[in-house]
Specification:
Strand content: 15-25%
Shape: globular
Radius of gyration: 23 Å
Mean pLDDT: 96
Low-confidence stretches: none
Number of strands: 25
Oligomer: single chain
Length: 562
């Protein structure tokens, strides 16, 4: 047989942004051998008549760093046609980590990325087969994965490795920065795709402390990012904060001349109209040659939360004692009139805080004590009962031992604004957060949502542009050189889907994480086949490789396999 696999009769969108064309794709030895009118036989043939044949989708913003150590399938990304992910975003990760800091890192991930500590302790434990970043990549590679992955080295574990618990409290000195630079350099030489950091005020770690990266001065970030310039590879990924935004990005880019991508440009950020102003500013920078790339997403940012872990509010000073308290301590604080008055003053209706206007967009998603309230607006029920939305939410939380859940529409809810962001120049699709906030949200389905909602239903994005947005564009931004296009010689990652059926279901809650913990998932429709390095790993919604058997995914060191 001339080929291992042929995909025949489909409409090929090669990732370049060109219109689709009829043809075949042939695969040999894990790479694409031919595209177009392909003669010759194959051991296996997939009939793709009536289907779109596209490069495998690339998800650049995930947090599978811990999950990959117990879930080699990296669910649920492959369900939705994703064949390559990038993890280590926002400056978080599990390496490098000293053995004595493993508990601190897991508690940090619990707080800032919504990962259940019970799941981390059951799935990852305290005996890790790695300490350094280099050893981590080796451990992942040895275990194997269903899909490809690249990793960023994170500022938070690097800082904690060097400074211990003081990393959350103070700037680093010259000697510490030098040691951190060495760790970043070793990670880049081992194959890290870049360096990631965060100044987001929402990133509050264990005991209510800021995550380590938030204690860093700009000079430290510049010193660490300069390693990328010195090594001649890698990008800087940033989660923005007041001290690290467009002006600082320009300064960093001028100092390093390495690409910068930031999380995230969302509709409704910092008030109406600001997102579009920032988009225009970003486009102007791109026109001037600055590789400063905002991440956008087509999905509304909806957070489901309870008051056990009130992630959305923890950037407020009034929540500092909550972040540091245990379960019973939280309940005592929530019951106090003093806390409630302070919370209302900060985020109650009529205040200037962005949360003030979100109670109408917050629904009671789970209420074991009063199930009849589920899927009703907090503000509506509060008005009906003659009380404040803050009091209502806290009362329902306390009555349920903090088990009641609420779903808040945080950003990206104005579809007209989101459409303009998706059409913007110089952006990249990001912020799926796959692997993080598992019980709070699920945007790992961003690709099927884009194709089903924005391409088919709204007809706002042509298919060829959508495929480019999902494949070649993210690969280009992150320096992934052997993925993202259907081109002979590149890795044979392919997603085949029905354009009339592709989409993402409503979210559902399952209890399949280690320790029986819960997460939200979305099911994909219309995904016929997912192929990684020439191996079919999904057909018609089912895995075709065994989770405990040989898997075809590769660790993409320096942006490529091998």
């Amino acid at each position: 047989m001339e080929y291992d696999l042929k995909i025949t009769g489909g409409t090929i969108f090669d990732g370049s942004g060109s219109a689709g064309r009829a043809g075949d794709v042939a695969i040999k030895d894990g790479t694409i051998a031919a595209v177009g009118d392909v003669s010759g036989s194959a051991r296996e043939t997939i009939d793709a008549k009536g289907r779109v044949v596209a490069p495998g989708f690339v998800d650049i913003h995930t947090h599978y760093d811990a999950q990959v150590m117990w879930d080699r399938m990296m669910t649920i990304s492959p369900w939705h046609g994703v064949t390559t992910v990038v993890m280590g975003n926002c400056g978080f990760g599990v390496a490098p980590t000293r053995p004595q800091h493993r508990g601190l890192i897991m508690r940090t991930l619990e707080k800032v990325e919504g990962m259940s500590l019970a799941t981390l302790e059951k799935g990852l434990g305290y005996e890790w087969p790695f300490e350094s970043f280099e050893q981590y990549l080796d451990a992942v590679e040895k275990r194997g994965t269903a899909i490809n992955l690249g990793a960023l080295v994170g500022h938070t574990p690097v800082r904690m490795y060097v400074m211990g618990e003081e990393s959350t409290q103070r700037p680093a000195n010259e000697a510490e920065i030098a040691e951190m630079r060495d760790l970043v350099r070793r990670a880049i030489r081992a194959g890290a795709l870049g360096f990631a950091t965060s100044k987001s005020p929402t990133h509050v770690g264990y005991a209510g402390r800021p995550v380590p990266s938030r204690a860093a001065e700009l000079a430290e970030i510049k010193a660490l990012a300069s390693v990328l310039r010195e090594e001649g590879e890698g990008l800087l990924q940033v989660t923005v904060g007041r001290e690290l935004f467009i002006r600082e990005f320009v300064e960093l880019y001028e100092a390093t001349h390495r690409p910068i991508t930031w999380t995230a440009l969302l509709g409704g950020m910092s008030g109406g109209g600001n997102a579009l102003r920032i988009l225009r500013e970003s486009e102007e920078l791109a026109d001037k040659g600055f590789a400063i790339v905002p991440q956008v997403t087509g999905r509304p940012l909806n957070f489901e939360f309870n008051f056990k872990e009130p992630f959305l509010f923890e950037s407020m000073s009034v929540f500092a004692p909550i972040s540091a308290a245990d379960h019973d301590g939280k309940k005592r604080i929530y019951a106090s009139a003093e806390f409630r008055a302070a919370f209302k003053e900060k985020a109650g209706p009529g205040t200037q805080n962005p949360f003030a206007n979100r109670w109408d967009r917050t629904v009671i998603s789970y209420c074991p004590t009063e199930p009849a309230l589920e899927e009703r607006s907090v503000a509506e029920v509060a008005r009906q009962r003659g009380t404040n939305p803050v009091d209502l939410a806290l009362d329902l939380a306390l009555a349920s031992n903090l088990d009641a859940r609420f779903r808040m529409a945080v950003a990206n809810n104005d579809e007209a604004e989101v459409a303009q962001l998706l059409a913007g120049r110089g952006t990249v699709l990001g912020l799926s957060d796959a692997g993080a906030h598992a019980s709070q949200l699920c945007d790992a389905c961003f690709a099927t949502h884009l194709l089903g909602t924005w391409v088919r239903e709204k007809q706002a994005i042509p298919m060829e542009r959508a495929i480019w947005m999902l494949t070649a564009r993210p690969a280009e931004v992150f320096g992934i050189t052997d993925r993202g296009r259907l081109q002979p010689g590149l890795g044979a990652d392919v997603t085949i889907f029905d354009p009339d059926k592709v989409g993402a279901s409503e979210l559902r809650r399952v209890y399949d994480m280690p320790g029986g913990q819960d997460r939200l998932v979305s099911d994909a429709s219309g995904i016929d086949a997912v192929i990684v390095n020439g191996i079919v790993i999904r057909r018609e919604g089912r895995d075709t490789v065994a989770p405990d058997g040989p898997l075809p995914g590769c660790v993409l060191r320096h942006g490529h396999a091998g």
